[in-house]
Amino acid sequence: MPGYDTERFISKVNEEFVCSICLAVLKNPICDACEHYFCEECIHSWLGATSRRLRKCPLSNEEISINTLKPVPRIVRNLLGRLELKCAFDGCEKIVTYNEIDHHETNCTFNPENNVQCEKNCGATLKISEIGDHDCVKYLQLIVAELTEKVDILKAINESNRIEINETRKLCSATIQEVNRLLPMLTKELSAVKNELSEIRRNLGPVTQDKEKSVDMKRQSSIKDKVEYYERAGKSD
Ligand SMILES: [Zn+2]
Ligand SMILES: [Zn+2]
Ligand SMILES: [Zn+2]
Ligand SMILES: [Zn+2]
User: Which parts of the chain are coiled coil (predicted)?
Assistant: First the structure.
């Protein structure tokens, strides 16, 4: 039933506001070509269920179509909007206006689809339908078990981190010791190599100079030879 049950209204509802398809008070009212009012959902399913040839107003039998449906006059919306009705959910005593009812029911704490906090403040969030079976102690025991499990996991992670840190620390100090042990020896070796190198340089110095000198002389004599050759060739012309 898409409309609102007439029984829920505080005062008797004018028949004009009752949908002749669902026989309840119009919800999202819509007007057909012959000015009858229906719930939008009701007239859509009425027209959708019949074949194109048989699309007729359920009241006047005149041919109608979804395309010719239009909004109801403003006065109808205003009069409907002022009607007062009870909330649909068991346990809720609220009476609200037609305009407010959908918003109220969506947020109503008695709406079985909505979540509520346990009244005893155990921290549980429950659906209305779960309240009957809810036991604060059992709920808290479950939470404690979950937390204990999390703490155990954290402890294990912490322990494995501690072991890893210790191992790294040991490795570092062993490396430092080894470096300290080798350092004097390496320093001594380095200075010996340095000495040897400068010795080699000293011995190498004169040899290199001699070599350069002999290369220069060779080059000079070959130039001299060439000059003499051309001079001779010039004379013979
Ligand atoms: Zn209806
Ligand atoms: Zn009609
Ligand atoms: Zn309510
Ligand atoms: Zn509780």
Answer: 176-203
